[in-house]
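Notes to self, Ribose 5-phosphate isomerase B:
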Amino acid sequence: MKIAIASDHAATDLKSELRDWLIDEGHEIADLGPEPGESVDYPDYGRKLGEVVADGTAERGIALCGSGIGISIAANRNPAVRCALVSEPLSAALAREHNDANCIAMGARLTGIDMAKACVTAFLETEFADAHDTAGRHRRRVDKLSKLTAGN
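result:
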């Protein structure tokens, strides 16, 4: 799977560890930066991540900052992005299953590497519930999210 990953300066260590692990797992990774030691603003990297997920360059995205909050807000400014802030595997799985999340965000100051890997694994392995949701309630709700960003 092609996965984009971006962070701010508070999360470059976590980003590097996740990037290397994902490569070892066989994924193609687009590291959008920054490099360790650079002081940067999370909105710039959340925007970059949102753009590559929205245009299809990456199938999924991982956004990281100190808390995960700021970069998730920035990524979600793109109407094609559904970025969920997660802290454990169940929230990562439910974000995919119920909300068709195409990005997750985590906080490097709040989430250790083992928990981050567990969240990423759940995010990547869980499918959207559309196939087994005969009532179509999840698709209907996700479609409403797109309409909200279009001003409807």
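- The two ends are 33 Å apart (CA to CA).
- The chain is about 45% helix and 15% strand.
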